[in-house]
Amino acid sequence: MRSVTTVALVLLVATGAFAAVAVPGAGASTTAATQENDSSAYAGTHVAFEASGNAVTDYRVGDEVVFERLAVESQSSHESAAGIGAGASLDAVANLEGAGLSLAAQTETRAEVDIEGSASLAAHDTDRGILTVHAGSESQYAEMSLGSEASASTDGDAVVVESESRSGTFLVVGEGEVTVTDEGTVTASLESESTLVFRSYADGERSDDDREQEALIANGTATAEVYADARDGAFVADIANYGEDIAVETAQESAHRLELTVERAQHEGTVVITSVSETAIENRDDLAVTVDGEAAVEVSSYSELEGAIGSDESRYMVQHASETSASADVLVAVNHFSERTVAMDSSGTENGGDGTGADDGGSDDDSGIGDADETPGFGIVAALAAVLAAGVRLRR
Questions:
Q1: Helix (H, G, I), strand (E, B) or coil at 97
Q2: Which of 127, 383, 367 is nearest to 233 (CA)?
Q3: Which of 31, 205, 255, 326 is most buried, most CB within 10 Å of its CB?
Q4: What is the rounded distance in angstroms from the CA atom of residue 316 to the CA atom of residue 269?
Q5: Is 215 contained in some domain?
Q6: What is the phi/psi pair of residue 35, to 5°?
Q7: How many domains does the chain have?
Q8: Does one domain contain both 159 and 283?
Q9: Comparing C-alpha atoms, which of 283, 318, 277 is closest to residue 297?
Q10: 290-338, pLDDT tens digit by residue?
Q11: What is the pLDDT of residues 112-153, one digit of tens each?
């Protein structure tokens, strides 16, 4: 039996603040317009790049180029063409030709790039400019060439790239490594089913908390990152998967709480990182998390958060972002996976609404359509659930 955990997130939205929901792929978005003009270019709100031939080029986050070229090629193909032996050092992996690629599916917050062979690439149009390269069934090499104004250095098992006004971190989830070669390029070796992750930060924004989150991602503890924001008066949302055994879908909604299904193929618990802008959620100081109707424990350190996995209690932590960012991170550590209901509630009552966990007049179906007329400001919650579900179904 597949184990299922339901994660619920209540978003209190100011009345009339948003008029519509930006469903992925709907409307005349910047992304859609770009696709019509140039099928090899992507230009979103935060991220822009080109994908044609054998590489992704000019990857920009916030109008700053963080790397000039990214090429991905199977290890067997490159080793054969370059005449190097299997298991060669990453310094020997130079001038990667790269497999053929092309820009494929696009949504409001994501662009997916098709790569010949088993590898796949996804760019997430968020303020962190998240990019993931999944190796698939074959081992892969990835090579990132930096701009003239950028530099790279190792930071533990990760590589940090510094450009004029942004920084970024490359890390590997699963088996593999990433390093800075003698030529100054960033090169990664990915074993099958491993993932290369890139996260970007504004100048001076990368904090100790971000380093802790990167460590949770790299060691496989945090397997998904949810992003929710408001653009042009409408919600947009996206989910980056760092583990292939996790998926998120809408499970249940009501006027006072939003429920999402987080499904894992294994019993072990996990951490879900949720980055929410201040326009998307209020009353963070009143946030409460329950698991099967019992209150989860709020903690103040990442070690306590990790300690929830495999224990007899789930835990959560609210991490307020830096002064330069308008978002906050809510991290939920689900201690183990079975058929359970997890609710995040900022209505001021522990179990949502009247404290009983009832729907309080909201819809009981899985349609994702809320009762916006009866409770102003809460109908958008259900719409966000639909957005999250649609984004994850596309990824799956």
A1: coil
A2: 383
A3: 255
A4: 13
A5: no
A6: -65, -35
A7: 2
A8: no
A9: 318
A10: 777 778 899 999 999 999 999 999 999 988 765 555 677 889 898 888 7
A11: 999 999 999 999 999 999 999 999 999 999 999 998 889 999
